Amino acid sequence: MESLTEKFAAAMDRIAADHNLVLREVAVAVSGGADSLALAFLLREYVQKHGGRAVMLTVNHHLRPEAAAEAEMVAALAAKWETEHHILDWFPDHASGSLEEKARLGRYRLLEEWCAAHEIEHLLIAHHQTDQAETFLMRLQRGSGVDGLASMQPFSRRGRINLIRPLLDIDPADLKDLLRDNQIGWAEDASNECDDFLRVRMRKFLPRLEKETGISVRRLAETAKALSEARAYFEDETDQFVNRYVRYFEQMAVSVSPTALNALHPELKRRVLARLLRQIGGGNYPPEYEELQRLLKTVADPHFRGCTLGGCVLVPFQKRLWIVGESKEKKTPDSLQWKDFVRRFPAYDKMVIPHALKCLLAARQK
Fold it and tell me: What is the pTM of this model?
């Protein structure tokens, strides 16, 4: 029977091969909970065997009195393992909005900034099989399409770093057994039992779901994995379409043939628009499935004159659909501003482009 150490090594090697990565310098996010400590332990063994450098990063979010002590607990364990470790501080903003979501985004921002500043491109995250099942159900509840139901991916790009999730096929009970076998204690976060959070309610629902329907955590995770393969196919088709039919303008705008777009299968149409909106709008996530559905109907209307979504302006112009980053600059640039821009970028001298893009291009040169 394959050991947990062997499963972890196989997952790391598979991710590296699938995405042409060299996983020799990596960081790992470690909260002090069982899952992330087990991940750090497995990574330490992997690095000892394969060589390289591992760095443990702990974010003290200052949301619970125990947070500082948990961060110091991780620091002590890292010192015992002779592994580099850093504590990053995030301070809560109690303004309106979801504190949980702000803490999550703040945590990722700090981790990304540290990795980028220290030239480490890969960050390991301890999401496991049960996390995957919970994510599947949460996205099902929101009415997600293929991308959402494919749930978390073993590899994804976030800002300037790669997120690596090598534990998605691992039962979290096995992770706790690993820690017990190696006499490693962990901290329990009381918020993991708080029914205010949808994820917690989903986690508590999973045993009942299996008992009453036979739908297990493993089955949900396997379904997400199957959908991930479908997602990969659609992504490849999207790549081909974008490379053939989409024109980019300084990463500030794109234009696409409406005829070519309308000839696509609806899933591919949504996917192409989602990618372009995210690239030009700069959002962390693409628009939701229902937003894209509404957008497709809006754009297909023969009287369509323009709309906004995802930080972008969409306008029909010169028989093409244009997606332009939103700008506060509404005033048409004067002749001197435009001449200055064209002098720097002569390719635009004779180019006919929509007003929104002209304003954006000129404004960026101020």
Answer: 0.80
